[in-house]
Design brief:
The protein is an alpha+beta fold. 26% of the residues lie in helices and 29% in strands. α2 packs antiparallel against α5.
């Protein structure tokens, strides 16, 4: 996942944008996806490692967003975005990712397909935990994915026409840098920003 985010942040892309204004969740433009990703102003206590970046999910980049056989889960997707942050006081790293689809149905149909892959990123023995009322669908797991027992969390949520992920891990397992509450807070911020963008507002939710 870290490799995919790094490749994404080195990429670039474009695409046709869809306008809206009917009050319902809509397909986001490339710029709206970039704005949905938290920036430094939204992440109190964190420092940006890489600025929010968005690419078109064309044939070249689908393998990053949907690293499954035949890139399943990327059908009717439009853009893939990511941003990363770190905390110097706990060696924690946080990665936000988003796939924007052309409809709510497309996002809903991709949800289980992609969770079958992303849900494993917190380790084989990871346990589920509750995110609360975030989006139309949501899942979260807490476990250990490092070679030395480092903890990590992965969350996934559907918010309208988007699927959202937050990944938190740390190189220091003794400082409680990775917690369920922390992951829940980050996932909530991303979900609120996605909802704001789909409602036609400038994303402003912050920690």
């Amino acid at each position: 996942m870290a490799i995919a985010a790094a490749l994404l942040l080195a990429g670039c892309g474009g695409g046709t944008e869809i306008d809206s204004g009917n009050g319902k969740p809509v397909a986001l433009t490339k710029e709206q996806v970039r704005q949905t990703l938290p920036d430094g102003g939204a992440m109190t206590g964190w420092k940006a490692s890489a600025r929010p970046t968005t690419i078109e999910t064309n044939k070249l980049y689908r393998s990053m967003a949907c690293p499954i056989k035949d890139n399943a889960g990327c059908e009717n997707s439009r853009f893939f975005g990511a941003s990363t942050f770190r905390r110097d006081d706990s060696a924690a790293n946080a990665t936000f990712m988003i796939i924007a689809y052309d409809s709510e149905q497309a996002a809903r149909e991709a949800y289980d397909v992609l969770w079958s892959y992303y849900g494993k990123r917190a380790g084989q023995r990871a346990k589920p935990f509750s995110l609360g009322p975030i989006g139309e669908k949501r899942d979260a797991r807490f476990g250990s994915s490092g070679f030395h027992g480092e903890l990590s969390t992965i969350t996934q949520a559907q918010v309208g026409t988007t699927l959202l992920w937050t990944v938190v891990d740390s190189t220091d397992k003794h400082k409680k840098a990775v917690t369920e509450d922390g992951a829940r807070d980050l996932a909530t911020v991303l979900a609120k920003r996605a909802r704001q963008a789909q409602n036609g507002d400038a994303p402003s939710a912050a920690l």
